[in-house]
Design brief:
Number of helices: 4
Number of domains: 1
Distance between the termini: 17 Å
Radius of gyration: 14 Å
Low-confidence stretches: none
Mean pLDDT: 95
Order of helices and strands: HHHH
Structural class: mainly alpha
Largest sheet: none
């Protein structure tokens, strides 16, 4: 049971991180400052933060027109939900 708590904690943490990374990158973009790389933004989504990344895109209106984000983040989310579903069976 304790392992499940660690997994849930990790998922929550990585999604909160993803959400705020998208917001920080949007804030920096508006101010022409150093940016968070696209590889980092997509990487955080790939390691379990796809829900936070998708929510960050919607809330911050960030990266919504870039095809690799517009289609990539939802595909990562679908893949992660599929793996979760298959793992729970």
């Amino acid at each position: 049971m304790q392992m499940i708590q660690y997994i849930i904690g990790y998922i929550v943490m990585v999604n909160v991180l993803a959400f705020f990374l998208y917001g920080i990158d949007k804030w920096k973009a508006k101010r022409s400052q150093w940016r968070i790389s696209e590889a980092t933004l997509l990487g955080v989504a790939a390691i379990g933060g796809s829900v936070g990344a998708w929510m960050g895109m919607k809330v911050w209106h960030h990266k919504t027109l870039h095809k690799k984000f517009k289609y990539g983040v939802p595909l990562i989310l679908i893949a992660q939900m599929t793996l979760l579903f298959l793992g729970l069976r």
